[in-house]
Amino acid sequence: MNKDGILLLLKKYEEGNCTPEEEAIIESWYNQQARKNNINPIQEDLSETKDLMWEMIGQQLPAPKRMSIAYWRIAAAAVILMVVGAGFYFYTSNHNQEFPQELKLSQANDIAPGGNKAYLVLADGKRIALTDAKNGTLAQQSGITITKKADGQLIYTISEQKSGNPSGFNTIETPNGGQYQVSLPDGTTVWLNAASSLKYPVSFANTNQRKVELNGEAYFEVAKDKTKPFRVMSKGQEVEVLGTHFNVNSYANEQAVRTTLFEGSVKVSNSGDQKILKPGQQSAAQNAGLTVAAANLQEVLAWKNGYFDFNDEEIQSVMRKISRWYNVDIEFNGRITAERFNGGISRYKNISQVLSLLSSTGAVHFKVEGRRIIVMP
User: Which intervals hold domain Protein FecR C-terminal (predicted)?
Assistant: First the structure.
């Protein structure tokens, strides 16, 4: 594709008139240019990214004197939009792909991304589909009122006039292709990733601790209470805090339980071993013990912020994340690449666009059969 063709595609992209295949082509082209110019659109400062993009456009498109000012600005706006708005880029360390002529992944029976979907299981066994539930009061339990806000968040309100000791546990569950945000009775806010569940007391009022059980992945912003430590139990691991921000990834099909600290301090315990984390550190709990290392905070929090961020990941790890978010089964066929993938893309793109970008690296290809994704060399 020549430079004039690129310019026309950029204009269509800015106007929102691209087909999914054309969007994938533009984003793949940007992959290559960003890699050549050592640009990471998520890590770079916004103003610095814009300056770099202006320079990149000047190198890759016809000179300004041979273009109208309007077209030059359209090209710049379109590329900057890709960088700072969506942050699309994929590459592997050993593939130097030029602008692709075409991407042949079929758009038939495309699969939409996940969204705010969850189920609330009350202490009395009642199961509420939160996706379908109307905004407003969902239930009342011994002085606890559960309300669904317009943005989908669950809020617990404790009535000061109500006496008694609310007991029992509630559980919030997200399916594959779902995520949800809940504010617990103590004011702690939790974001649940796909295929996760959180079990917690109806009330923390008459307890000496705030203990919850997590399966899957969640980000916690714990309300401060020095008299009642907050404990997260997950896959044999315990995290204890008084008030802080942290992420726990405890999926059963991942090799380790990873706890990442963003603010405050936490104590992580596993099989008799204990570690105190400082902000920016991540612990990994495995059969071999508990280790601590510096964390890539951007990568850890990508799911909560609405995008995938792959940092030197093998294709098996990449596909596990895709499987959970798009609610698809993954099958590997043939010799699987040893390449490690780097890149990011919005979690709100259809699966065909994500797979097209991955396949544009040349390291892997896909076939979609219903809700089954076949990964091929």
Answer: 307-375
